[in-house]
Amino acid sequence: MPNLLAYWPAADGSLRRLKRITIAGPLLFIGLLEFVRHQLLAADVAAPVALMLVGAVLVTGSWLFAEWVFGLIADLQARLETALAEAQRERARLLAVLDASADGIYVVEPGEQISLVNRTLERLLGLPREKMIGQTCFGHTLTRTRDGRLLCESACPFQEPTRHRYPTEITAQTANGLRSLEIASGRILGLDGQVEGVVHVLRDLTARKEIERLQDEFISLVSHELKTPLNHIKGFASTLLQEDVEWDRETERDFLETIDQEADRLTHLVENILEMARLANAQEGAFLELDWHAPADMISAVIERMRAFVDDHHFVLEMPASLPPLRCDRRTVELLLNNLLDNAVKYSPSGTTVTVRACSEAETLKVVVIDEGAGIPAHVLPRVFERFYRGANRQRAPGTGLGLAICRRVAEAHCGTLTAASAPAAGSTFTLMLPLEGPNDEQAPRFGG
Question: What string of DSSP letters covers 119-165?
């Protein structure tokens, strides 16, 4: 709003000259009234206020009244400017809150055009807000309910203003691909109770849905992995207990060795499940049982155990005559090494070699496990350490998708790292780096008991 006091000198001079006007100059008098009215109207003052001011001056001749009115207008202008500035600050705070939200938010006007979006929605849909503002509501194009219908065909807040919109699960085709979302809506009502806009809140469920899918698959895998060794154990034990059959010593021993191997396989599976549960609840148990150990003894012991159970692979150990001691939790580190070797055996053909190299570098123990398998595709490599994740060879290689996840977590618990490198048809290489000093008491996590 322009400053009304800037118009006062012109109006003041004109009104002073008005005192010298005689009855003989009515046309000049009317022209002056029009001048004052136009000056005030040009200042965005309502016509009734302008006429009141002119009338007051002419009727009472009071310049104090005119000055009071101009002062009143100046005060109103200052208050309006202050209120406008506060409204702008409040709007900026509101936009900052919306942008900080972890959920995507957008506002739709009665014409079903988008008028506001936050930054989370930009990231979620992979679109800049400039391309969304002014566009038609996403319910017409992007979002579908679980039964495949467009969202606006099932429930539109504008078409059904009295219907409450509970959170609804939908799928949306975005620039980032197909995503699972949950949408909730709230109506913006005017003073007359009519809908003036709708606020939509989108929550990304894609990651949660993927975890749920992996967990369901994990339960199925565990059921299968538990059932297989149990069936073998039950079958061979029942065979040995048959009273109407005489088995020679060699056959009995073969049966008993199979039972023993399947029991070990079952034990390994249960240990992995329990260890993953401990690692997932790392704030609720006892500290790692840290002590100084000879890494050469630990590595050799794990390899010898693998040789006892695996007869269709060759194991090669390349290690110096002596290695500096390692401060670690022996049980979890040996589990880590065992899982790495087990993974190498599962994903490489029979008759191939698994190579283990160990050395010390700059106060760090380095252990490298190399297999001669088919390799890991580049798009799969970043996910091999995720819980429950299993690659394209899941049908050929049994497992639960926990082994490498446990390996990575144990390495991190010791303030170390575990990385994977691979190429198709070139095998895989896993590199473990553990600080010889191990984690200090503040760094050591708490494992569930």
Answer: HHHHHHHT--GGGTTTSBPGGGTTEEETTS-BHHHH--TTTSTTS--
Question: Domain 209-280 classified CATH 3.40.30.10?
Answer: no
pLDDT by residue for the chain (449 residues), tens only, comes to 444 444 444 444 544 444 444 333 444 445 555 555 565 555 554 455 555 555 555 554 445 656 666 777 888 888 888 988 998 998 888 888 888 888 988 888 887 788 888 998 888 888 888 888 888 776 545 566 666 666 666 566 665 655 556 677 877 778 778 888 888 888 888 888 888 888 888 888 888 887 787 777 767 767 766 787 888 889 989 988 888 888 888 988 888 988 988 888 788 778 777 776 676 655 433 457 889 999 999 999 999 988 988 889 999 999 998 899 999 999 889 989 999 999 999 889 999 999 999 999 989 999 999 999 988 888 888 888 887 676 655 545 556 677 888 889 889 889 999 999 998 778 999 999 999 998 875 544 444 33
Place of tokens 């396989």: 265
323 SS3 class = coil
Residue with the two structure tokens 């206020």? 49
Architecture of the domain defined by 286-447: 2-Layer Sandwich (3.30)
358 and 365 Cβ atoms separated by less than 8 Å: yes
The two tokens of residue 218 are 């994990």
Domain 101-204 is in which class? alpha beta
Put simply, whether the predicted model's pTM sits higher than 0.85 gets the answer no
